[in-house]
Every structure is written in structure tokens, then in C-alpha cells.
Specification:
Blueprint: H1 15-19, E1 25-29, E2 35-39, H2 49-53, H3 55-58, E3 67-73, H4 76-81, H5 88-97, E4 101-107, E5 113-118, H6 121-124, H7 140-149, E6 154-158, H8 160-170, E7 177-182, H9 190-204, E8 208-215, E9 224-229, E10 234-238, H10 243-249, E11 272-276, H11 280-283, E12 294-298, H12 301-310, E13 314-319, H13 321-325, H14 341-351, H15 353-360, H16 365-389
Parallel strand pairs: 4-6, 6-7, 7-11
Antiparallel strand pairs: 1-2, 3-12, 3-13, 4-5, 8-9, 9-10, 11-12
Helix pairs in contact: 14-15
Bound molecules: flavin-adenine dinucleotide.
Flavin-adenine dinucleotide binds near residues 183 and 294.
């Protein structure tokens, strides 16, 4: 049973489930693999705590005008290991140094994406890098609250709806809580991700050992999807050609609520927003080396104070928010739904993932030739760029 409002508005953040003091709400997957709340009516006492914790029905996000920066980590190792400019790591490390706790998205042992926490710098590596499936929140909000109640600092990272969920669940501003969200394209179905992983495992003949959706050894603007398997085999494909990443970028299997996201364009409710600084080559060419430049938006004094603590570790320059967001359309607008979403899901259930994706992502000869030409041009210009600047990851 779905709780309040329309199913397509539910972001699946799990705030209602975390808030229920009677264990009456569970998060259950639907046919598309997205989690939705389900009430066990025999346990429900109609206290409405769940309704108060829902970020969609309870609180509209506030309008704020952020400060914007183009930034990248001076440490190329961290930048290489991160999806963008490597800002998450130093911000999170500051909180760990205060004996705080950092929450973010990690792979579990079976490569499902889950919200987990880190208390040491070593643990932090599991939270690093973008994972392109909606993360399962589980009881992360309740754990974060317990840490705050114990007087610890908490850095909570997630999508804008997950951050809004945490804040609605807590119901008050907590001095020791830093919330960091992302400019979010939308979140793919965990079920489609699982099916894709199984397909790749079948193709390679062994279980997967490591996954990187955006490996940047070649380039940040044209990254590779890489999977390593237990038998030593490696799958590596330009993300624009990898079936899963292409389906993600074409919005084929995003959560329905992502198509009318209520957390777009308002400045959100986080203290800090992290994103890719798309278009930095045109706005601030001196900060572009195609190895990852982040866009940092600071929304609050707490965010500004934390940024000040790590500034020494970054190369950064302030820009106007309008300039910073010009090439990042999904900062302000929701992803556009595909032409016939119901038909996609019907085909997926009937024919399975690989066949469905191939049918939906057919590429004609002209596009293939254009891609090949673009790859050659990119390779040449990257070589020239690296030769001119003498930079590059020695990974
Ligand atoms: C699903 C998704 C869509 C995105 N869409 C855009 C976009 O359209 N435009 C844009 O500019 N940037 C987007 N980003 C953000 C961007 O790709 C980088 O994650 C961000 O800039 C931080 O990079 P970093 O190098 O500082 O740190 P990294 O170490 O690369 O970032 C890791 C951070 O991302 C969080 N994270 C990773 N996967 C998930 C997930 N599934 N759910 C919630 N949090 C997650 C981790 O908790 C951690 O805080 C998206 C990220 C994700 C996960």
C-alpha cells in the first residue's frame, strides 16, 4: 500500500520508514525495482509521524542564492579516484577529524547501492565515486540521528530528495549536521542495475570484483565504465557506449518521481551542493584539464565554514551562479521522460534487459561514424593538451 499522495511523487527516500516508531512501515520494491513504503496496518497507530517526515508532502524547499565556485582537488590521486573534481573527500575528511561520521552511497558486498557510513579515512573510499542506481536508505537517517543525539558531527551526502528526507525526518536544524547534496540527473532502477550486472557477469564468466561507472584515465568529459571480474577479465567501454550508462543518460529507467522532481532549481535545502562543472572549458579554461573540475555551491554559513577549512587543499575560483549552471541543465530542470515509458517496461519484462536495451538504443551507421571521428579528434586534442600542460594522472 502506498502512503500519501500519488505513487509517482514518492522519491523512495525512506524518511517515513525511519520515522515510524512502531515498525509499521517497510520499503518494498515495485515491478520496476524502485522502493515504496508499505504499511502493516496491524501495527499502525495512525500517529502521522510518517506523514510529518515526508519531504514531498510536508515542506517545500526554500529559495536561496548560493555562492558558486569552480574547484578541483590539488591531490591528483584523490581526483583520479573521484567522479568529478574530488571535493567530497576533503570535506568529509574534515568531519572525520572531528571524530564525526560521514554518510553516503556505497556498494554492499553484492554491488547493490546502499546508504552507509564511514568513521575512518579508509572507510571513506567506499563512499567515493558516483554509483548510478538509487541507493537504499535503510535505517541511515535513524543512525545519523543517533550520532547527532550523542553530540557527534555528521556529514550526510545524498541526492537532493534524500537530503530533504533527512531534514524532514529530523524536523529541526541540527548544529552539528552538514548536509551535502548533488546536482542530480535522476536515479536509475536498482533492479535494472542488478540485471545489467548479472548480464556482464554471465558474459565474463565470473562474479564482479569492482565497478567504476566513470573511470577518468582517458578523460573526465568522456569517461569509461569499467568492471573487473574475479577471473581477471576486465570490461571497459566508453560510458556513452555502455548499454547501462546510455540507458541512464537517455532516462529509460529513472525513478518516475525524477521526471517532476520538486527539489530542482530552488537552491535545495543542503549546506553544500557538489556537481560537475560542465562547460568549465568555456567559462574558466585555466581550470580545465579534462581530469575533473567540480562545481561547488555553498548555501549556508555552515557550508561556508567547512569550505574555508579545506580551501588550502583545492584550486578554486568563484563564479556567478548563473555562469556556473549555464551548461548544467539538470540543476534547474527535471530529466525529460522517455517517449513511451510504459512500453519500455513492458518490453523489459517480456524480453529481458539486454535485448530491450539493444532495441531501444539502436545506433545507426552515421552515428557510429560520427562517434569514431569524435573519439579520434578527442584523443588527438587530449594528447596535445597533456603535452602542452604537462599534466595527467600517473595512474
Ligand atoms: C545518480 C547521480 C546523478 C548525478 N547527476 C549529475 C548531473 O546531472 N550533473 C552534475 O553536475 N553532477 C551530477 N552528479 C554528481 C557528480 O557526478 C559527482 O558525484 C559530484 O560532483 C561529486 O563528485 P566528487 O568528485 O566531489 O566526489 P565523488 O567521490 O565522486 O562523489 C561521491 C559522492 O557521491 C555520492 N553518491 C554516489 N552515488 C550516489 C547515489 N547513487 N546516490 C546518492 N549519492 C551518491 C556519495 O555518497 C559521495 O558523497 C550525479 C551523481 C549521481 C550519484
Amino acid at each position: 500500500m502506498i502512503l500519501y499522495g500519488r505513487k509517482e511523487d514518492c522519491t523512495g527516500c525512506g524518511a517515513c520508514c525511519n520515522a515510524c516508531a512502531h515498525g509499521a512501515i517497510g520499503m518494498k520494491p515495485d515491478m520496476e525495482g524502485f522502493l515504496y513504503p508499505e504499511i502493516d496496518v496491524s501495527r499502525c497507530v495512525a500517529c502521522k509521524l510518517c506523514a510529518m517526515a515526508c519531504p514531498v508532502t510536508s515542506k517545500p524547499p526554500s529559495d536561496r542564492s548560493p555562492k558558486a565556485y569552480a574547484c578541483r582537488n590539488k591531490d591528483d590521486r584523490i581526483r583520479y579516484d573521484s567522479s568529478s573534481g574530488g571535493l567530497f573527500t576533503p570535506l568529509a575528511e574534515r568531519i572525520l577529524r572531528k571524530s564525526g561520521v560521514v554518510f553516503g552511497a556505497a556498494f554492499d558486498a553484492s554491488f547493490n547501492v546502499v546508504h552507509d557510513f564511514a568513521e575512518t579515512a579508509d572507510d571513506l573510499s567506499r563512499l567515493r565515486q558516483s554509483k548510478y542506481a538509487q541507493s537504499r536508505m535503510g535505517k541511515a537517517y535513524a543512525r545519523a540521528k543517533a550520532c547527532l543525539d550523542a553530540g557527534r558531527y555528521v556529514y550526510f551526502s545524498g541526492t537532493p530528495c534524500q537530503i530533504a528526507g533527512l531534514q524532514a525526518y529530523l524536523g529541526k536544524d541540527c548544529e552539528r549536521l552538514i548536509c551535502q547534496d548533488l546536482i542530480c540527473h535522476g536515479v536509475p532502477s536498482p533492479k535494472v542495475w542488478r540485471d545489467y550486472l548479472s548480464y556482464r557477469e554471465r558474459r565474463s564468466g565470473a562474479p564482479v570484483r569492482a565497478v567504476q561507472f566513470r573511470e577518468k584515465r582517458q578523460s573526465w568529459s568522456s569517461p569509461s565504465t569499467v568492471m573487473r571480474f574475479e577471473n581477471g577479465k576486465e570490461y571497459r567501454r566508453n560510458a556513452r557506449e555502455d548499454l547501462f550508462c546510455r540507458g541512464f543518460l537517455e532516462n529509460l529507467f529513472l525513478r518516475p518521481s525524477c521526471f517532476s522532481c520538486p527539489f530542482k532549481g530552488s537552491g535545495g535545502s543542503a549546506d553544500i551542493t557538489l556537481a560537475d562543472f560542465w562547460g568549465v572549458d568555456r567559462v574558466l579554461p585555466e581550470l580545465f584539464d579534462d581530469r575533473g573540475t567540480s562545481l561547488l555551491l555553498i548555501h549556508s554559513q555552515k557550508g561556508a565554514d567547512l569550505f574555508d577549512c579545506v580551501r588550502e587543499e583545492l584550486i578554486c575560483e568563484e563564479v556567478s551562479p548563473a555562469e556556473a549552471l549555464r551548461h548544467n541543465p539538470l540543476a534547474l530542470a527535471s530529466a525529460r521522460p522517455p517517449a513511451a515509458p510504459a512500453q519500455f517496461w513492458e518490453t523489459y519484462h517480456r524480453r529481458g534487459l539486454p535485448k530491450t536495451l539493444r532495441a531501444y538504443l539502436k545506433v545507426g551507421a552515421v552515428i557510429r561514424c560520427k562517434r569514431l571521428a569524435r573519439r579520434v579528434v578527442n584523443k588527438i586534442s587530449r594528447r596535445q593538451n597533456v603535452a602542452a600542460k604537462g599534466s595527467g594522472f600517473d595512474a
